[in-house]
Amino acid sequence: MNHKTFFWFFFPTALAMILFIALPLTSIVSQSFHAPHEEVLLVAEICDPFGCETESTIDHQATEQLKQDKPLGRWVGFEIYADRQHLAFKEVAQFWQSRPSFTGFISSLNNLPFYRAMGFTLTYVIVVTPLVILFGLIIALAVNSLHRHLKGLMVFFSLLPMIVTPLVGSLILFWMIDARGIIGSGLQEIFSDPNLSLKASTGLTWITLIVYGVWHSAPFAFIVFYAGLQTVPKETLESAMIDGATRFQQVIHVVVPHLAPLVAFVALIQLMDNFRVFEPIVGFSAEAHATSLSWIIWNDIGQEIRLLSSAATTSVLTIIGVVILLTPVLIRTWREFNPEK
Amino acid sequence: MFLRKIATVVALTTLASSVWAGCGISEGRVSIVGNEFPAIQTVGAGAMECAGGGVTVEKNLTADHQKINVPGMQGNPAEFTTAIVANSSIVALMNNDVIRPLDDLVAKHGQGLKKSQLITVNGNIMGVAFMANAQHLVFRTDILDQLGIAPPTTYEEMLVAAANIRASGLMDNPVGGAYKAGWNLAEEFVNMYIGQGGQFFEPGSAKIAVNNQHGVDALHMMRALSNFMNPDFLTHDSNATSAEWKAGNVAIMNMWGSRVGPLKSDEVDPAVANNTDIAGPMTVGGGSTPASTLWWDGWTVSKNISDADAEATFIAMMHAIRPEMLNDETSPLAVWLIDGYQPTDAAKGVFAAAAMGTTPYPMLPYAGLMHSAAGAELVDFMQGKETASQALADLEAAYTTAAKEKGYL
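Output (structure tokens, whole complex):
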């Protein structure tokens, strides 16, 4: 392919990447280094149905010119990255110096929003990702061994959890696990503990979110592996059978190595998705027990206070987190496709 | 036959146009954003009556209104020509400079308004209030009568009553409360802290000052109450708490006046609905100021729209809150500030709150930052994971970080 052809071939992709990836990235990175201008407050008499009071209000005229000249706000450099709501360098250093023990240090870190969110997010990623791959593989093997008339139907049903919108799926489960819902009261019956509540304890909330995460994402791994299973070479399987391999040995020694590149692919996507865990936290109203970086972003821009710079900073940190998490998988993939000569 | 059809259509159109002509506007764009409880739905429906001919009226009434009203009013022309707000949320609109002074429009079209309905900042009219609201006591007469308990007037009495009800075996978790982590939990803290006599900020400054004995006492009372609540209380907002009430699981709670109507509706089990009664807000810690806040709801007009649209919006919203809209159905929905409103039984809680000198929710530019920091930082204390003063220190630190970013400190 000559350069000109390549250029025109690649141009639409490049344009989309610039518009939808590069520009938003530039925007959040520059936003994260700026904060709104300092407001000038003036005392005003504010009257409402309950009477008049002298209270502070914002003097817009005082800063109007400044805001027009510098619409991005004032330059603050890494100030927001370092503040308590983000990396909190000062607080962390303080905790480290006054630590009673290492666990004491960890539990005081849990008091800072960013590290609290990272705590849950990383646990979620580490637990959910392998479980999704494992369950996806088991479901794929099970469906693949069914009679061909049943396969279509089972594929459809196995995909349902993924088809349901995450927010809706988690809301449905939220009401089912309520102390008065079918699963919630069922569990109370099983453990004969009338005060058992999945929503009231941090540990149980985490387990609920993780179970939900596996339930929601396993179909994705399943469908990828199921497609992969259709390409497993029959000859190898048959020769394994002749050699006397059990079904389990066939899976371990023939099927799994064949699917290895797909495992890397699913792991890549799942690491990325799970790091951005968000909908179940909102759906399960779990913010008292579990938060994630995406939830912090949503909380910053979703309320009337609209902390845009703070949200931009957390977004940049999320991207850095995703990159760090993906590096090992990416290096592996790179090596596979560029074998050393 | 064909002619008759045409004649019918023409007649219907004329009829319809005579209806919208009743609002007195012939053209313009009206677009409303606001909260979604029944009283506001009524106001929204009233404004919709002005649609027709050259007038378009749209409404977007949602619990998420605070998230969309500022972005929807910052463009030029603004998507929303009016936002229905309360004393807390008008601050966000003023902070972002997206609403216009209404002095000329009030002079031209606002003859029916009472002076007390006008929200003014240094004499400039920024909004028009149409209803008042407050949280106050809601109780089950049958349960309290059965145990011979008087409706509590203080939170300390509420705790005693709750212990009695639990001991009697009538209910396991007799206390209700919208304690959902976030806005609701912060609102209960604001109530309780005011009841304890606390001040949120150092006078005349944006410097927060809640880490004191008032704050600690307020938090301890909230935790004591939560021991008598459904263990899932940190996930219960006003809707979920109302559902608990309707299901007959709760006997005493602090709840919004505007939420009482639905608790007594025909759809609720009569055993609950007929025994639901209300009283004024409670005090706490021996204080005389109720542990509650007074709220108004009103509407504003966008700055970034044409004067013609602003005028159409003003007239449509005036139509929505005209005295004739009050009837047997709409009167119990709220404490209307509209001329000619006759207080109903459902209003006595809010009236008691006003009579007891309940503090209005603070209309400060940085009050929202404090509220939002409280909603996130107090949950650890409510779960028993840290001390009250640690939670308050966290709240102050989170607020200070946000206020610095926003340029208030």
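Strands of chain A lie at 34-35, 41-48, 51-58, 74-75.
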